[in-house]
Design a protein that fits this description.
The complex is a heterodimer.
Chain A lengths: L1 H14 L2 E7 L2 E6 L3 E6 L13 E7 L2 E7 H4 L12 E7 L2 E7 L4 E4 L5 E2 L13 E7 L2 E6 L1 H4 L2 H10 L1
Parallel strand pairs in A: 2-11, 5-7
Antiparallel strand pairs in A: 1-2, 1-8, 3-6, 4-5, 6-7, 9-10, 10-11
Chain B lengths: L5 H31 L4 H20 L3 H19 L7 H23 L9 H20 L4 E9 L6 H12 L3 E7 L8 H9 L1 E7 L3 H9 L4 E8 L9 H7 L3 H4 L4 H8 L6 H22 L10 H25 E3 L1 H17 L4 E6 L4 E3 H22 L3 H6 L6 E10 L2 E8 L6 H10 L12 H5 L22 H11 L3 E7 L3 E9 L4 E9 L2 E6 L3 E5 L6 E3 L5 E5 L2 E7 H4 L13 E7 L2 E7 L1 E9 L13 E6 L5 E5 L7
The chains are: A alpha+beta, B alpha+beta.
């Protein structure tokens, strides 16, 4: 029993502190790797009537139907046409699987805990809602996404209203 | 208490599952016997067996309370089994068994909720013992019989122990009654020698003689190494109890009479539903892949005779496989219906109304999912029917009805739906009362004169709506009916009610037969594909511009065979860009739901095929007009339309 527990710890350790980073416009974002299940190229998206604009529709991920969200639109940025560098990052949060459409992905990096700081609270910027923390890597800054809030309750409520 | 590890969790689940099934069966037997006021030998055997099984499994799981109760019931039936001719109070026995069933049910619910068992069965057990004693008393009251237990051990190597034992029994017969011995079968069963050598030969008997006399009498036996005789403490039950304990060491013999049933059981295995779901998913995937292979666009223009032959064979097999998998999930509705017998019985006693439950079409099969969800609604409906619907005997007599109220429970397949109706011949719904209540609750939004009878009756499905002035034990809190609707709607079904005053009420539940694979017609709108369930399609046709009628609000309608139907433009409804916006360029598909008809306007009709319904990702809540989605042969996704949404 104790062995099994320590194994789980080891497993978590390998995922902890690792982030998948991707650029979006001028900023660099990061997602904790433990949420990411896979990254696939852009594929045919079936639109669904009556959902928020930033949810582009659903895709067929090897027989599994998952919704996809355009992160650019989610952050109220200018839409950009999809090309062969566009990726869908499939994440799993609280048993909800969803694909995030991003311009491209950069790399997986390890960020030590001491380099991660709380985001400033004063800024009521709309984007700030989705930022869990800010990581400093050398001189660059990566914004760590709060995946939970990305599909947050507020917007789920919005979805319900629409239906 | 049992250890809570994952394996004991699995055992517990198994125990709960089996026990629920067993007590369900038991309940059915008891209620059936109650109807004819007689327990026949078959029923007694069956009950004994069930009690024995529950006792065994519950003591294995350390659920002592259940084991104790079932043990005592087992005693009673063990006795009845032996004394076939015995007269007994059937009604009292029925009550006892039903009480035991209830006790076990409560304990099982606690188990399911993860609580510890804490019900105290001692009163129940006392009751049962009391019953057993009264049962036996007439035979033992007259003469003072002393219960004895004798254990013989024969001298080693004396051989033919079984024959010697038989000799003892033979000798004893003149002086004792109710002789029981272990091993039971001395002569025909060779293994009895081994048992006697190992455990000794045990006899239980009643005799008038005092202990010393019996001791002397039995000691005269030859080749005895040692021999004990003792009076057993509990005078009455003692005859049975040790025997059962002893017999448990050789259960094969006990189970001998039920060969027939045990072989039946062997051909059924229970499978976890998650495995079945997984299997169904896989078969669904296979159907899709099959279509991907056989309808591959790269093969379209090639002449491939043998390939087509082979692919037809494949299609045939996958279809059969699909049907098979679907049928695995189908369960007869009878168990659900039989559970209701019990409610009818209890309520008719408590409320002092005579009620008979008529069941029609219990062999109808529905998806396991559905079974799980309809038992609560049906229970509510039955309760309502008995409590509110049926009148008391005097009232019924005055109205010239039979004194016994009838509730008819009917299930039938109608197309791709299952219809379950609950019909009573009671007083019917009071329209005025419902209207009054609806007014008070502010439910009426339209002029009352415009409401049809059906619409008025439908008010009873609203939350908190009860016309019963008094809250009774069974109903009247106004929570019942909206639970019914919620449960049924969760299954994608619908509930409707109709009633004639003084004649009765009919409540009809319509549920889709299965939720997994449907026949669908694929249509396109602006390059996107949608699937319409074939069952709701009446016909598809093209129209000329002249046929379209427009009302002042610019709603489009079309006249078909003398009837006017509204047109819904799918591209507008779903906000899809398409080139085809003139009604005569596209296709009109007439869909029907509950006698309502609308015409859907789409670009093109593609083809008809079986599709595997996939639920929309949970991220989306209920969507208007869309029932789910499916993956087509080319891997693209098609949304399945929920036609009933177009009528609201």
């Amino acid at each position: 029993m104790s062995e099994a527990i320590s194994e789980v710890f080891v497993e978590e350790d390998t995922l902890k502190g690792k982030f998948l980073t991707f650029p979006l416009g001028t900023e660099d974002y990061g997602i904790e790797i433990k949420f990411v299940t896979e990254i696939v190229g852009i594929q045919a998206i079936t639109p669904i009537p009556g959902i928020p604009e930033y949810i582009k529709g659903i895709i067929n991920l090897r027989g599994k139907i998952i919704p996809v969200m355009d992160v650019r639109l989610r952050f109220k940025k200018e839409p950009k046409a999809y090309n062969d560098r566009t990726c869908i990052v499939v994440i799993d949060i609280k048993e909800v699987t969803i694909g995030l459409i991003v311009d491209s992905v950069s790399e997986v990096i390890s960020i030590p805990d001491e380099n991660i700081i709380e985001p400033p609270h004063v800024n009521k910027n709309i984007n700030n809602r989705f930022i869990e923390s800010i990581a400093k890597i050398n001189s660059a800054v990566k914004l760590i996404l709060d995946c939970d809030k990305l599909l947050n309750e507020e917007d789920l409520a919005e979805l319900e209203l629409l239906s | 208490m049992p250890v809570h590890s994952s394996s004991s969790e699995a055992f517990r689940e198994m125990f709960i599952f089996e026990t629920i099934q067993l007590i369900g069966k038991l309940e059915q037997i008891i209620l059936n016997s109650e109807k004819c006021n007689n327990l026949d030998t078959h029923a007694i055997d069956e009950i004994f067996r069930i009690m024995h099984t529950i006792k065994g499994s519950s003591s294995m799981m350390f659920y002592k309370h259940i084991a104790l109760v079932t043990h005592s019931v087992e005693d009673v039936f063990f006795y009845l089994r032996d004394e076939r001719e015995k007269e007994f109070d059937c009604a009292k026995l029925t009550d006892i068994v039903l009480e035991v069933i209830d006790f076990i049910k409560v304990e099982i619910t606690k188990l399911q909720d993860g609580q510890d068992l804490e019900g105290d069965p001692s009163i129940l057990i006392q009751d049962i013992h009391g019953f057993l004693e009264r049962l036996k008393n007439p035979s033992t009251a007259g003469t003072m019989l002393n219960p004895y237990e004798a254990v013989f051990n024969f001298v080693d190597g004396c051989e033919m122990e079984n024959i010697r034992a038989f000799g003892i029994i033979h000798k004893l017969k003149d002086r004792a009654e109710n002789i029981r011995h272990v091993p039971e079968d001395l002569i025909d069963d060779e293994s009895s020698i081994g048992i006697i050598r190992k455990d000794g030969f045990k006899i239980l008997f009643h005799s008038e003689g005092p202990q010393e006399e019996m001791y002397g009498f039995l000691q005269e036996t030859l080749f005895i190494k040692d021999f004990t005789l003792r009076v057993i403490e509990k005078k009455v039950i003692s005859l049975e109890e040790p025997i059962i304990d002893l017999l448990e060491k050789t259960p094969e013999k006990e189970l001998r009479p039920d060969n027939q049933i045990s072989t039946n059981k062997q051909s059924i295995i229970s499978v976890s539903v998650t495995k079945l779901d997984k299997l169904m998913d896989l078969v669904g995937e296979m159907v899709i892949s099959e279509a991907m292979v056989t309808q591959n666009p790269e093969l379209a223009d090639l002449e491939l005779d043998s390939f087509h032959k082979a692919s037809r064979q494949l299609k045939k097999i996958t279809n059969e496989l699909q049907d098979m998998v679907m049928s695995i999930r189908m369960v007869e509705i009878s168990t659900t219906f039989h559970k209701l017998n019990r409610i009818v019985r209890d309520m008719s006693r408590k409320l002092n109304k005579e009620v008979q439950l008529q069941v029609i079409g219990e062999e109808t099969e529905v998806d396991k999912n559905i079974i799980d969800h309809i038992s609560d609604p049906l229970m509510h409906l039955i309760r309502n029917a008995i409590d509110h619907g049926l009148e008391h005997a005097e009232e019924r007599k005055e109205q010239g009805k039979s004194e016994i109220g009838t509730i008819t429970l009917e299930a039938k397949n109608a197309g791709s739906e299952v219809w379950i109706t609950v019909r009573d011949d009671g007083r019917g719904l009071d329209k005025q009362k419902i209207l009054k209540r609806a007014r008070e609750n502010g439910l009426i939004v339209r002029p009352e004169s415009e409401l049809t009878d059906k619409e008025i009756y439908a008010f009873i499905f609203f939350a908190g709506f009860s016309t019963n002035e008094q809250v009774t034990e069974y109903s009247g809190r106004g929570v019942g009916m909206d639970v019914v609707t919620k449960n049924i709607e969760a299954l994608g079904g619908a509930v409707s009610v109709d009633s004639v005053q003084y004649k009765g009420t009919v409540i009809t539940i319509k549920i889709p037969l299965t939720l997994a694979i449907i026949d669908g017609m694929t249509i396109t709108v602006g390059g996107l594909k949608y699937t319409v369930p074939t069952t709701s399609i009446k016909q598809s046709f093209r129209i000329t511009p002249a046929e379209v009628i427009r009302d002042p609000n610019n709603n489009e309608m079309i006249l078909v065979r003398g009837q006017c139907h509204p047109i819904i433009r799918l591209h507008e409804l779903f906000k899809v860009q398409t080139r085809i916006t003139n009604l005569h360029e596209g296709i009109i598909m007439m869909v029907e739901n509950d006698d309502n008809i609308v015409c859907l306007f789409a670009d093109e009709l593609i083809d008809k095929q079986q599709v595997v319904v996939k639920t929309m990702p949970s991220y989306f809540k209920k969507m208007n007009g869309i029932a789910g989605c499916t993956i087509l042969g080319d891997g693209s996704i098609s949304l399945i339309l929920n036609t009933s949404d177009f009528f609201t």
